[in-house]
């Protein structure tokens, strides 16, 4: 009986650790590479380091792209449309 309880506890601990790490990764935001890809796609240029760090805090690429397109820099680049 003792071995079964140990295995259950070990399994539950593993699942909790996996869930916590998954949650932390999901909360981390975008990677530097993802932000760089958005800059190239939207502005046709590389991102500068401070700008890249700022946009990494966004929850996902769609949210970041939407906010990037709403900036004055995007309006200057694309015009009023």
Main beta sheet strand tally, sense and closure = none
Mean pLDDT, rounded to whole units?
77
The total count of helices amounts to 5
Structural class: mainly alpha
The total count of strands amounts to 0
Distance between the termini: 70 Å
- Principal-axis shape equals rod-shaped
Uncertain residue ranges? none
Compressed to H and E, one letter per element, the order equals HHHHH
Taking all Cα atoms into account, the compactness measure Rg is 20 Å
Beta-strand residue fraction: under 5%
**DSSP helix fraction:** over 70%
Give structural notes.
This protein is an all-alpha fold and 81 residues long. It is built from five helices and no strands. It has helices spanning 2-27, 32-43, 49-55, 61-69, 72-78.
Question: What's the topology here?
Answer:
Elements: H1 2-27, H2 32-43, H3 49-55, H4 61-69, H5 72-78
Helix pairs in contact: 2-4
Identify the notable features of this structure and list them briefly.
single chain, 81 residues, 5 helices, 0% strand
In short:
Helix content is 75%, strand content 0%. It has helices spanning 2-27, 32-43, 49-55, 61-69, 72-78.
């Amino acid at each position: 009986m003792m071995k079964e309880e140990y295995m259950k506890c070990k399994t539950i601990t593993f699942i909790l650790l996996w869930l916590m790490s998954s949650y932390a990764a999901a909360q981390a935001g975008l990677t530097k590479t993802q932000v760089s890809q958005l800059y190239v796609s939207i502005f046709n240029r590389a991102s500068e380091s401070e700008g890249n760090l700022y946009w990494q805090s966004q929850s996902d690429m769609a949210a970041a792209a939407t906010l990037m397109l709403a900036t004055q820099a995007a309006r200057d680049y694309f015009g009023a449309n």
